Amino acid sequence: MWYTSSLKYKDKFKEENPRHVAIIMDGNGRWANKKGKMRILGHKEGFKAVKKAVKFSIMNNLKILTLYAFSSENWNRPVFEIKSLMELFFFALDSEINNFKKFNIRLKVIGDITHFNKKLQKRIHQVEKITLNNNGLILNIAANYGGRWDIIQSVKKIVKKVQNGVLQTEKIEEKTITQYLSTSELLPVDLVIRTGGEKRISNFLLWQIAYSELYFTDVLWPDFNDCSFQNAIDSFISRERRFGGFKKI
Fold this sequence. Notes:
The chain is of the alpha/beta class. It has one domain: Decaprenyl diphosphate synthase-like (Undecaprenyl pyrophosphate synthetase), CATH 3.40.1180.10. Helix content is 40%, strand content 14%. The protein contains 7 helices and 6 strands; from the N terminus they run E-H-H-E-H-E-H-E-H-H-E-E-H. Strands 3-4-2-1-5-6 form a 6-stranded parallel β-sheet, with helices on both faces. Helix 2 runs parallel beside helix 3. It is globular and about 60 Å long. It starts with 19 loop residues before the first strand and ends in a 12-residue tail after the last helix. Its cofactor is Mg(2+).
């Protein structure tokens, strides 16, 4: 199995490690272009990097790993690339289900998956149901996800509550919005990592990362490995999180 040998290192976990890490996995296409290969081959190598990141997360006892797999803007890509990405997503679900079971991983998918074909939607629901009671790492995949979409969905649910007389307008607070986001049951995001050299958020978890630490690296996603992940963790640990407060002396 692809992470069996690493589980013995779980005692290396430090209390100051982030509990919830979110990653914008950028650079698959550029990785492929640099090597003169088709973009889909970059995505396949990116899938291997996902498995390494999951292994690292288990090894370091992280609680939640959120991966930005497909944004709501990615539909603007060539049809062949989108089709290949959907096929790769289905393959990943099928090929990793036994590992999810064996290593107690719970799969959660956030985003508007109604735009995916029925076969893929069904498989997502099946794997989520199969792993629902697993209490190890939560692998949270953002697919056809956008931060603005997430906030809009939350607002719509709140408006319906107000219209039905269940919620009073003056009672709406920040935690009300949070309660109806797709990540409502998850711990706050501690660290956001973006690979590929770009330094922007790209409509990812806009509400949830208001006070998250951000880490940008030039490493293209297929090349992201344990060392790359550890560098991000070390950067996180070295920072003082004040959440709008003052610096400790």
